[in-house]
Amino acid sequence: MPDIQTRPPASSADGALKRNALGTGGIAFLVISAAAPLTVMAGVAPVAINVGGIGAPAGYLLAGIVLTLFAVGFMAMTRHVKAAGGFYTYISLAMGKTAGLASAILAIVSYNCLQIGVYGLFAVQTHDMLKVVFGLEVPWPAIALAAVAAVWLLGYRGIDVGAKVLGVLLVAETGILALMAAGILGSGGAHGISVGSFSPENAFGPGVLAILGICFAAFMGFESTVLYRSEARDPDRSVPRATYVAVGFMSVFYAFIVWAVVQAYGEDRAVEAAGELAGGMFFQTINHYVGPWAEVAMYFLIVTSVYASQLAFHNAINRYVYMLARDGVLPAFLGRTHPKFKSPHRAGQLQTILAAVVITICALLNADPYQQLLIWVNTPGIFGIVGLQGLVSVAAFLYLRRNPDAVTHRLMVPLSLASAILLFGVVLLIGFNIELLTFADALTNTILILVTPIVFIAGLLAARWVRRHRPETFAQIGSFETHEP
């Protein structure tokens, strides 16, 4: 098995991350929170039902199956590659340092698109909550900038503090969705309980294929488990466990909740109701089946759901920047951690400033916080992450072919290849159905699609420049290790 270049272990004074700060549960909370279950259900699932029909719940299961295949090869590599660089390290090892650095740049841009864009959703949801519950009218830029400060504060305090907060928020947001489902099923739904959503004609219909991009977007961030390897307890076990827990929980839970909402209106009325009610569908459903108090609680919890997502993505971005700085690609000061909290606070400060600048520009341009800031900024991030998952599957296939001792089951290699083919197929499906995500004109959609390949090509050119002009730095690409005892 090839060795990754290493350098001496970093001492605490030299900027190491906090050791043994996270177990399986803490890592799982971080990555599930990034997906914002309540937000993707209440805010986006009605679109999936309206377009995909009553088979929409199956779309989430299909996405979960594909991502589980992806996780097989991904986790096989992480058991043998003691590195915490995420996509960056794995692609560097199996496909070369040039592709690795380009992937790292694409990952940072994609995660930033997801994180910064969601501040628009946070602003909209918080504005609505303050108006409905308290009768207050607060400008959306003020809300978004306040959220930027709140996310920075918890990220600054360290990963263990953030994981505890995310754990509480995640339990609350999944709890309110489970309560709604219990109310629906306990009342027998609109016309009794049916499993027609999972029949072959509904589960594999053209509508479900069209919404796969929406379904995959609901899992964004689950793959970032490997970024926390340096801070994990027993990472060889906790990281794979957290990955499978995250993807398994989300796929089953999403499918169950969407299926329950279909039952709330009946299979003959659910699609029409999703079109009429849109983002208000879940709120009206919980009001009817549980009570007005639960609707008010959902308004509060959807705000905390978005905040939890912001914090999780903030942590992931900071660790990518930190790893690149430790490998010498980015300025060294970004690879330093806080002397007390052991958080990559320098990287966090940079990401916070970037988010504040983008929000301020959007406010000055009078941009719509939902359409322009959330949807348009998020879309390249979705393309980028799913595309990177496909590249990691290729990397896993190549690595496992070259290193038979890493293969613990004969199906690992073909499953990695299958996941690569499926994930690149999903990228194409998202592109063909991009209007379902953006509701934009053809020119805007074309620009949003082109962002990902342009960033990746720019990354390849940057890597070639580094190889030519900074060969010592190029040799360190993808070399950062956890140096576990």
From TrEMBL:
What are the recorded GO MF terms, alphabetically?
A: transmembrane transporter activity
Keywords, A to Z, come to: Cell membrane, Membrane, Transmembrane, Transmembrane helix
**InterPro entries from the UniProt entry:** AA/rel_permease1 (IPR002293), APC_superfamily (IPR050367)
Query: Where is this gene product found?
Result: Cell membrane
A Pfam family (short name) is AA_permease_2
Record keywords: Zinc included?
no
Give the residue spans that cross the bilayer: 21-45, 57-77, 98-118, 138-156, 168-191, 203-222, 242-262, 296-317, 350-367, 373-400, 412-434, 446-466
Bilayer topology reads: Multi-pass membrane protein
CC annotations in GO: plasma membrane
Q: Please state what the protein is called.
A: Putative amino acid transporter
Question: Can you name the source organism?
Answer: Arthrobacter globiformis (strain ATCC 8010 / DSM 20124 / JCM 1332 / NBRC 12137 / NCIMB 8907 / NRRL B-2979 / 168)
Ranked from the top, the taxonomy reads:
Bacteria, Bacillati, Actinomycetota, Actinomycetes, Micrococcales
